[in-house]
Amino acid sequence: MALGPTLGTGVFIGAGQALAIGGPASLLVAYVFLSLLTYFMATTVAEVATHAPARHGTLVTNGFQYLTNSMGFAAGILRWYTLAMFVPYEITTAVVNLGLWNPGSTIAARLSILMTLIVACNFLPERHFRSSERLFTRIKIGTLISLLVLSLSIGYGGATGHDKWGFCYWRKPGAMHEYLTHGPLGKFWGLLQCVLHSSIAFTFVPELIVHRAETLESARETEIGEELDPAIQARIPRQVAIDTATTALPYILSSLAMGVMAPYDDPLLTNNGAGAGLSPYIIGMNTARIRIVSVTATIAILLSSVASARSFLYLASRTLCAMSELGHAHQVFKVRNQWGVPYVAVSVSALFTPLAFVSVRISSSVAITYFLLFVNSSGYLSWLVSCAISRSFRQRLRLCHNSRSYRFAIQPLGTHIGTLMSGILLMSNGLAGGVPGPLPGSRTSRLVAAYISIPIFALLYFAHRFRTMIPDRAFHHTQEGHNNKEEECGKGVAEVVHPQQGRPSAQPVSPETIEMNQVWSMAMEA
Asked: Which molecular function term from Gene Ontology is one that the record holds (predicted)?
């Protein structure tokens, strides 16, 4: 399943805060909406990947190829630090899952243990990391399936001494919670906030879905310059459709199950209004008085948090390593040890991990909200960049009188919808953080966390464009000022060919890069 690396506390705990804000019906609608948006974004990325599968990932490679070098650099760094910021988010939600909400030295000790474990795992040899990734992915998927089955059992009277719950929480306290104001407008605001709080479970899912579809055989053939097998290209769209469905289905079922397990007015969902609290699953088990299962589920969710954090640190370090191999970051980041680990890239990416220590000064429930706002805004920016790449890709094909290898039925409408929705969510993320209301933290801090990604992205773009701080390392050796039709056609589209046509020769790939792609493929297949 493609959801393996992203299946963490975003769905187990983060959805609980969304449930408290919007209610069970709003949570279900939010997950259905985000699943559709994920499909639109996955097909947007997959059309480019089908035409020219990229060995270093669609967001890193295609930004340079179809936009500008400056935009590609900004997008690559954006992806890197967003993936790295997932690590302190997952660590903080792990301690919240344990009920450690109050700041102090006790929580600092537990944070240190989790950080050490996560960073140490990323220095394992690639072979051992690959094996552990498969194991943790199975644990997370097994945990989700077990919680869904348990929710169904409890909801229909499976717990001893309890009547059938069913959808009683949809009737009382209600299906939709009013937020900020009363009436239909209040329910709309609750739904919008529910979408924003649920988005973190879907961030970078489209990119991972496409990476799952780009098989190892496709990567090898593309890298060594051989002719691309048409069967491999034809398999990418089909695999994207399958993985999108298998990712959306458990998420939607999980949102439905959480609405059965806990009412939206339970104070434990938000730590009595302080922020993120316990998972709706844990609350439902405690209400049903099945303590042993509750403890087991708490441990399983903790393992899911640790597994997701180590996966995101891996993805962040390999993104930085890939940019270095492409010549867009310092060459030191691609240095690997004898076990194939880019230890410099891992060390630099791990520098974001100590941000979890903010929970020592403020409540971990409040810290989660700040991390969530920041990661969400960065994810929306990434989706906007993917849409821009897709539009530029289609424009250059039209300019060259060429056709796409495959066209999804929803495209280009899906790209337009993705652009519109990503822009609306990006702006709403900041507006919702600045309005007075029950959200934790100060209004100023929420606004900074929600909007800081925009000036960071702009700073990266203009710093690279003006060549004042960052050296120019062009991905494609193109010259400035090529505005005529022939030269514009050759930039970024000359490498994009049909399966029936040959592939241009490419530089040989190192064995370490082949091994990195094996880890990607094994992690996605798990």
From this structure: amino acid transmembrane transporter activity
